[in-house]
C-alpha cells in the first residue's frame, strides 16, 4: 500500500516555514515508509482545489483507499506520525 503525505504550502507562508523542519525530520526517520509530496499552491492551484485546500499549511495523509487524515495549520510531529501509521506507513 502506498502512503502519501501531501504538504500544501506557499513560499510566502510563515507557518509553512515552521512546518518544513518537522516534515524533514519525519521523512529522515521513516524513510521509504511514505512518500512526501510538496504542493506549492501558487504553482498547482488545480491540485489545491481538488483537495479543497483553503488554509496553509494543510497536510493530507492518504493511501490507496483515499484520504486518511487532514491537518490545517502547523501540526506536531506526533500527530503526523500517528496519521501515517494509521494509513499503513
TrEMBL record:
Superkingdom of this protein's organism: Archaea
Pfam family, one: Thioredoxin
Keywords, sorted A to Z: Disulfide bond, Electron transport, Redox-active center, Transport
Domain Thioredoxin: 1-89
Record-annotated site: Deprotonates C-terminal active site Cys: 7
Catalytic residue list: 13 (nucleophile), 16 (nucleophile)
Keyword GTP-binding: no
Annotated site residues (Contributes to redox potential value) in this chain: 14-15
Cystine crosslinks: 13-16
The keyword Transport is annotated on this UniProt entry: yes
PROSITE patterns registered for this protein in UniProt: THIOREDOXIN_1, THIOREDOXIN_2
Gene3D superfamilies in the record: Glutaredoxin
Protein name, as recorded: Thioredoxin family protein
Species: Halorubrum yunnanense
